[in-house]
Amino acid sequence: MQISLTNHSPRTIHWLRYAAPQAFVPLADRLIPWLFSVAALLVIAGLYIGLLRAPTDFQQGDAYRIIFIHVPAAWLSMVIYVVMAFWSGVGLVLNTRLSAMMASALAPTGALFTFLALLTGALWGKPTWGAWWVWDARLTSELILLFLYIGFMALQAAIADPRRADRAGAVVALVGVVNVPVIYFSVQWWNTLHQGSSVSLRSAPTMATLMLQGMLIMTLALWAYAAGAVLQRLRAIVLERERHADWVQHYLGARV
Amino acid sequence: MLTALLLVIRRDLLLSFRRRTDVLGTLVFFIIVCTLFPLGVGPEPEMLRTLAPGVLWVAALLASTLALHRLFGADQADGTLEQMLLSPVPLALIVVGKVVAHWLVSGLPLVLLTPLLALQFGLDGSATTALALSLLIGTPVLSLVGAIGAALTLEVRGGGVLIALLVLPLYAPVLIFGAGAASSAVATGEVAAAPGVFGAQADANFLLLAGLLAAAAALAPWATASALRISLE
Predict the structure, then answer these.
(1) Could you report the predicted ipTM of this complex, rounded to two decimals?
(2) In chain A, whose CA is at the least distance from the CA of B221?
(3) In CATH, what is the architecture of A34-197+204-255?
(4) Which of A204, A243, B86, B94 is deepest in the core (most CB within 10 A)?
(5) What does the mean pLDDT of chain A come to?
């Protein structure tokens, strides 16, 4: 199904046309399989390097291998929150529908990675630190980040009117993103003021090249997965919100 | 402008005075939560002295969250809030007035009650002063930040729980610096003659807490005003 949009705009702002839902959905249809395939291939490569090829750490043994999931997930959990706040801001200022939907599509994936980072951290902490959980600055701020994601999703779920939910969520995301650095530093100072942390992530030995390669490949893999999953969710949100529009009927009719 | 601010404060104070049970309810809740902790962890004076700042602070956090729905709820129900949105006075200014009034009836009483509870937890004079002072600087931040949550959850299903979910994570820095200031003062009191007013660590925490108050006072009213516009559009 070809959606014909007037094509008289200069080339420079050509990409803006994908801000329109009816142009976005076919684009997402084309991108999603690619993103998921790239993610699958990179996960296989990254896990092969990480689990089979990378040398065993002389201090932590094989337990360290969880970082191939843990570190990319933790990075993504923070990046996604910032991206979510960015699209919320764009949606609030420019009043574009797709930006706000993008923010709501990002939240569950961000929460998933935050949870994953906490879970893998706990699994790594038990053999390495001897405790499932310590009130380390990073762990605590990651946990608060999870609460922020949950608050955002709960608020959007509780408001019936989608437009109001979009904008209320945008305010929460922006207030949250202002607070994230404050929370991070306060938690860090809290920890250092109370007692010196007996365990530190910073004292980890410098990494072997293979370890670094594995981690970077896994990072790219999770990024690709996150992009694919977010686009998939965004596509579903767009189709649901616009289900009464003509183009959705045409689009769905053409696909059957 | 200033008269409008004073009028909003005066009106809200008068309304709270007419509904005294609400205010007393928050206060009694604060006392009850503080009373439950010794029952839960045991009566050892040494441990209670260490726990006291954290316990009072968490109880203040919860009590303030509990009171938030009153901030805009009644005005929204009888349509006053919509009139406020239509008035020529900047909405952020009206928000400031309402937050100040709300703090005077829900935050300040907690500060005034602190010496009594500190006595029960066995804190000495300087630690009590530090704790009350930290609550005096910190509770306005709770009201300011909480107002954003209260404005966003107007007329929302399950609003009460939702406010707590939205606002409590944002309270984390206030809790850290507030309780941190008070508990460093408790610790310094035992060492005695540390530099600074309550000891260097406590002073650092007080300054950070005051910084949070300044930032919240500058930013939160705008966020609350735009949240109110979204909720009532």
Answers:
(1) 0.85
(2) A175
(3) Up-down Bundle (1.20)
(4) B94
(5) 82
